[in-house]
Amino acid sequence: MPTLSELLRYFLYLGALGFGGPVALVGYMQRDLVERRKWFTLEEYRKSLALSQLAPGPLAAQLAICLGYIHSRVWGATLVGLAFILPSYVMTVAISMLYVRYGGLSWMQAAFLGVGAAVIAIITRAAYRLARLTMSRDRLLWGIFLVMGVVTAWTESEIATLFVLCGVLALLVQAPPAWVRRLLGARAALWTAAPLPLLLIQGLREPASLGTLGTILGFFAKAGAFVFGSGLAIVPFLYGGVVQEHGWLDDKQFLDAVAVAMITPGPVVITVAFIGYLVAGQAGALLAAVGVFLPVYLFVVIPFPWFDRVSGNPQVKAFVGGVTAAAAGAIAGACVVLARRAIVDLSTLLIGLVALGLVWRFKIPEPLLIAGAAAVGLLLFWTRGVSAA
Fold first, then answer.
1. DSSP type of residue 265
2. Where do the domains of the chain lie?
3. CA separation (Å) from 267 to 173, 195, 273?
4. What is the pTM of this model?
5. CA separation (Å) from 336 to 43, 82, 127, 133, 341?
6. Measured between alpha carbons, how far is 347 from 72 in angstroms, rounded to an integer?
7. Which among 135, 155, 161, 239 could disulfide-bond with 141, CB atoms 3.0 to 4.6 Å apart, if both were Cys?
């Protein structure tokens, strides 16, 4: 087990250089903390991932806070959460200030052409490693994985109730409670051995008023408390409130906010700081970030002691296994959803394929790969600009 300072240094690094959004960040934590450094056991990781999926809020931040809680309880959860979020928050606010000062982010969107394609490659590799590690050769869990992957790719959303249902399915099949065995009698064995398909069927502005700041805090707290899934799942909710309900941003500004979140490292949901800054400056950015992440923190530190005590129960372990498989499937489906948005032409397709080959064959550091892809995107932007001129 590492010291708390070692763990904090890791999450500062991940928050400062961890590109790729929630899917990739979850994969990095599994690779770095479980496989390579062995700071956490696979069981601890699976338990943390399951709780993160069951609770509302951005997945990567929840998982980081859970691991911090395992290490040093409330103090560890608090410091790890701050270490993970702070670097991307500072970068996002700095970019927000440049955005307001210079009136746009065309150069950033150009860099994102390359970054987005490279990120898909990184996410694909991370999703594969996560699935292989968490499910081994369990046919039921692989079936859950495939179904959740297809559902996520098809609906372009992560449906919270399906995670619970997948956990219940795994519980009933792999560790049915005594009352279920009594109810089913001899048919329980037949159900457990049934074919897998049968089981699956079943801008810088004037200082904002206190009223506006209160509205910002309340809106983003609601987003953190009631939106399930990865940080990407919060984007439709934000659009409905920020653009359609409150009219704080127009469509272009909102897309720029999402671009900022994707091109900066750390949790994707940090886009709320960009939005908050455009609405109400530094105070708006801070309150938006606090609003989103405070519910996430509370949903970890309050239920985790209970969740930890019952995690050794066979039924709970089966349920956690089903939820983890569902999470891995949703992550794989998210790869498809993101690829539809990131691979927009032949150049981005080539960048993505080259990045996938590099990340699969060689141990190239992700920040270096991201920087190279961003440079290619900027080069393409400059070349097209010169050609148009």
1. S
2. 4-203+298-388
3. 35, 39, 11
4. 0.66
5. 28, 31, 11, 21, 9
6. 46
7. 135
What is the three-class DSSP state of 41?
A: coil
Q: Is residue 228 within 8 Å of residue 56, measured between CB atoms?
A: yes
Q: Compute the C-alpha angle 213/216/220, nearest 5°.
A: 150
Cβ–Cβ under 8 Å, residues 159 and 315? no
Query: What are the structure tokens assigned to 71, written together?
Result: 């290490």
Residues 234-285 pLDDT 10s: 666 777 788 878 889 887 777 677 767 766 778 778 889 999 999 999 999 9
pLDDT given at position 139: 84
Q: Are 270 and 85 in contact (CB under 8 A)?
A: yes
The conformation of residue 55, written as its DSSP 8-state character, comes to S
The C-alpha atoms of residue 289 and residue 85 are separated, in whole angstroms, by 9
CB 279, CB 271: distance < 8 Å: no
- With left for phi above 0 and alpha for psi between -120 and 50, is residue 35 left, alpha or beta? alpha
Q: What is the pLDDT of residues 149-190, one digit of tens each?
A: 888 778 766 566 777 788 788 888 877 777 666 665 544 444
What DSSP letter does each residue of 281-309 carry, written as one string?
HHHHHHHHHHHHHHHHHHHHHTTHHHHHH
Among residues 163, 117, 137, 171, the alpha carbon closest in space to that of 317 is found at 171
Q: 175: how many CB neighbours lie within 10 A of its CB?
A: 16
CB 384 within 8 Å of CB 109 = no
Reference 152, options 53, 243, 238; nearest CA is: 53
Cβ pair 122, 368 in contact under 8 A: no
What is the C-alpha separation between 136 and 33, in angstroms, rounded? Answer: 19
Name residue 92's amino acid.
Answer: T
| E strands in 201-253 | none
